[in-house]
Amino acid sequence: MRASKEVKSEKLRVKSENLKHKTQNLKLTEIHISGAEGLYPSSEIQRVVRKYIERAISHPKGRPDKIILSIEDIKEKPKEIQSLPVRTVHSQTLAEAKDIAMKLLKASGISEKAIHAALRLIKKGGLRGASLISAEKAERLEPEKQRGVRVSRLGIDASAFRFLSLGLSKHGINTDTVKEALILASKVISSKEIIAELCISDDPNYTTGYVASKKFGYIRIPHIKLKGSKTGGRAFFVKEGAPVSKCISYLEKKPVMIKKVSPCRGIVSDEIINSPYK
Ligand code: PML
Prior knowledge:
By secondary structure, this protein is of the alpha/beta class. Helix content is 27%, strand content 29%. The strands form 3 sheets. Strands 6-11-8-9-10-5-13 form a 7-stranded mixed beta sheet, with helices on both faces. The protein is globular and about 45 Å long.
């Protein structure tokens, strides 16, 4: 499901006859309101469609003027994976959050150049999908830069979902936002070509982001952006020299289902860098 609305953008300052400046709106731009997807048995379709529509029309970003729903019959048996283990670091400021994200990514093998490239791209905003950045040389790898890469065909089975909800509830983070981000990150990190992901939400009211990696799992980082900022996005760090088309095909096309759930912990006060998961 994808919900969006058109807003006026691209303003031009013009001088009117009485020489006062006026602002004219030139163009309508489509902004993203909400998105969701999953892999479900056919008996679940009606319930899920109702849930998605309800979510799209009651989103805090506003009422959409377009909701696109697509339902596809997936023939291929999904690959079964385990969700990443979840932890939250204790960060209280933007500077602290960025410092932790940098440390986690560097300790996962990502170069400073690649981390800065990702932060610049995310700060600039306007990415529709995720961007792929090579882990050493910081090269942008996705063929269509505006579109980026859209992670698709991912889900969690009913009993793993219940187990995950229970685990997250113990720490007060059992929300759709956390569950969907974790499911997505678990698929991304299960790709052979990807080492780590950096995510900063584009929701102006959501200031927690995460770094996910094979080494540390899913690490939530509060205050990674300032409240009110609408820019955000995802960057996936790809092993230098790895086959890009294979990686994109896995992320966009390969059905992947979470069948097992790793431990969910709350806020960790110990030095996270010294406690890798693998
Ligand atoms: C999003 O806006 O969907 C991204 C949310 C990322 C962080 C989720 C979490 O709190 O773990």
